[in-house]
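pls design
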């Protein structure tokens, strides 16, 4: 065996080589095995699954590559070749040692309302204190498994804000050597999704990566408890005069009218619904109040606003959710 002992770090690609001879010796076959306590396991070519890659026998060398090594890959590996015309198989072994990665990382999952600022926290656990970060990159996951780079930071020093552009909504830095962050200002609905952080360590070929999820709440959403009162608020920018508004609740059969400011349409309201809701407007807000919340109130609501005093008769629709627990 060319390398009877092989040591690597988790996440690295490793290659083990076996030399046989003489160089012109023809083979009828070869295989790699992993020796386990409960028996051997044959290793097939699984390169399509990004796990193992077994090379053909060239220059009297057989090679086994393991991609993105994990701690469980550690152990004894055996290379077996069978010469043409030979009854005896030739075997050799190597011991693979896998060390824990230099750092462990995770990003906190967060939930935030629109227009607020949020920090995604990167927690780093150093396995070796002497190591130093050479670069850190923050990405947002987009369609088709791709990722969009948001901001980068080279040779960061802990406790300093390292990357901040006044024209950008993103800032990243470190609170201390164990805690980094990505700050996003004035959150929008499209900011919701998966975020990825990649960290490069000086002297290490591996790029350490972790991810977290950001959930963006609609400002109009309401979280309520059964038996209590609750309110949905609809904000708008119109003159209060001559405004009509309608509240609908989405159902399996379409939309159900539950409140209407136009008296001529009040007859369309169901009697059993009338007493459970109140609605009023003022200060560019329309409120739908639930007298006593029930599980049946859970769902999606729409407020439709029309301003008949304007020449173009402005119309606005706002959707909100009531989440009952």
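designed seq:
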């Amino acid at each position: 065996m060319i390398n009877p002992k092989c040591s690597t770090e988790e996440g690295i690609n490793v290659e083990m080589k076996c030399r046989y001879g003489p160089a012109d010796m023809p083979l009828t076959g070869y295989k790699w095995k992993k020796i386990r306590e409960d028996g051997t396991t044959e290793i097939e070519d699984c390169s399509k699954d990004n796990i193992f890659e077994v090379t053909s026998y060239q220059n009297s060398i057989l090679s086994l590559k393991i991609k993105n090594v994990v701690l469980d890959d550690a152990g004894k590996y055996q290379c077996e070749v069978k010469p043409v015309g030979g009854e005896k198989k030739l075997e050799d072994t190597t011991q693979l040692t896998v060390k824990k990665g230099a750092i462990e990382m995770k990003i906190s999952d967060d939930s935030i309302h629109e227009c607020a600022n949020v920090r995604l926290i990167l927690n780093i656990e150093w396995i070796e204190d002497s190591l130093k970060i050479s670069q850190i990159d923050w990405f947002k996951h987009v369609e088709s498994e791709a990722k969009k780079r948001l901001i980068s930071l080279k040779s960061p020093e802990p406790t300093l804000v390292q990357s901040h552009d006044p024209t950008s909504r993103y800032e990243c830095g470190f609170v201390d050597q164990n805690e980094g962050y990505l700050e996003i200002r004035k959150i929008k609905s499209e900011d919701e999704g998966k975020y990825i952080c990649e960290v490069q360590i000086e002297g290490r070929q591996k790029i350490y990566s972790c991810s977290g999820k950001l959930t963006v709440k609609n400002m109009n959403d309401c979280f309520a408890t059964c038996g209590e009162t609750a309110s949905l608020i609809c904000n708008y920018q119109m003159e209060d005069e001559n405004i009509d508004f309608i509240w609908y609740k989405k159902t399996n059969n379409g939309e159900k009218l539950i409140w209407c400011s136009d008296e001529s349409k009040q007859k369309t309201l169901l009697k059993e619904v009338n007493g459970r809701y109140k609605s009023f407007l003022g200060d560019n807000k329309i409120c739908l109040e639930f007298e006593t919340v029930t599980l049946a109130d859970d769902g999606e609501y729409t407020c439709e606003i029309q301003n008949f005093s304007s020449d173009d008769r402005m119309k606005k629709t706002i959707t909100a959710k009531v989440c009952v627990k």
